[in-house]
Write a structure and sequence with these properties.
The protein has 171 residues and is an alpha+beta fold. It is 22% helix and 41% strand. It is built from two helices and nine strands, in the order βββββββββαα. The chain has helices at residues 107-129, 132-145; strands spanning 2-7, 10-15, 19-23, 32-35, 38-43, 46-47, 55-74, 79-97, 100-101. Strands 3, 4, 7, 8 and 9 form a five-stranded antiparallel sheet that branches. A four-stranded antiparallel sheet has the order 2-1-5-6, with no helix packed on it. A hairpin with a 2-residue loop joins strand 1 (2-7) and strand 2.
Length: 171
C-alpha cells in the first residue's frame, strides 16, 4: 500500500518501511509522529478511502542538508556578495499507513550476526597479546592476501605546441 502525504509544503509518495527526508519537524530521534495530511492512498491500481487515514512515522534523525551557495554579482560595479546555508531536515521512517504496518524482516539477521562475530573477536584479540615483533609479519601477510584494485590509467600529458622560428628583420 502507498500514500501521498503533504508535509513542509511538499508532497511525498511513501510506503510502509520507506525512509524519507522532509523539512524540519519538532521532535527527537526515536519519537513517533503521525502525518494527517494524506492526499491519496492506494494499493496497486485500487484507490482507498481517505477519511480518517493517517500515516505513522518514526523520527530517525535531525540533520542538515547539502550546503546551498547564494552568490550575487552586479557587472561593472565591483559588487559581489557570497552567502550560504544548510537547511534543517528530519529523516523519517514510515512505520504504517492506516492500519497496515511495515514488515519486520531484519530481526532474524541481527540474532545470527553476534554469534558469527564472537569467533572473529577472539581471533582479533589473540594477535594483540603477542609482542610487537610478531605483529609486523602478520600485517604484511594480510596485505599480500588482499588484492588491490587496478589503478585507472591517466591520459598522457599533451605535448606543447611547436614554436615557430622568429621572423628575421631586414633593413
Amino acid at each position: 500500500m502507498f500514500a501521498i502525504v503533504r508535509t513542509g509544503g511538499k508532497q511525498y509518495r511513501v510506503a510502509a518501511g520507506d525512509i524519507i527526508a522532509v523539512e524540519k519537524l519538532a521532535g527527537e530521534a526515536g519519537d513517533s509522529i503521525t502525518l494527517d495530511d494524506v492526499l491519496l492512498a492506494g494499493d496497486g491500481g485500487d484507490m482507498k478511502d481517505l477519511k480518517g487515514l493517517t500515516v505513522a512515522a518514526e523520527i530517525i534523525a535531525q540533520e542538515k542538508g547539502e550546503k546551498v551557495i547564494i552568490f550575487k554579482k552586479r557587472r561593472r560595479h565591483n559588487y559581489r556578495r557570497k552567502n550560504g546555508h544548510r537547511q534543517q531536515h528530519t529523516v523519517l521512517k514510515i512505520s504504517a499507513i492506516g492500519s497496515e504496518k511495515a514488515p519486520a524482516k531484519a530481526a532474524p539477521k541481527k540474532e545470527a550476526a553476534p554469534a558469527a562475530e564472537k569467533p572473529a573477536a577472539k581471533a582479533k584479540a589473540a594477535p594483540a597479546e603477542k609482542g610487537p615483533a610478531e605483529k609486523a609479519p602478520a600485517k604484511k601477510a594480510a596485505a599480500k592476501t588482499e588484492t588491490k584494485p587496478a589503478a585507472a590509467k591517466k591520459a598522457p600529458a599533451k605535448k606543447p605546441a611547436a614554436k615557430k622560428p622568429a621572423a628575421k628583420k631586414e633593413d
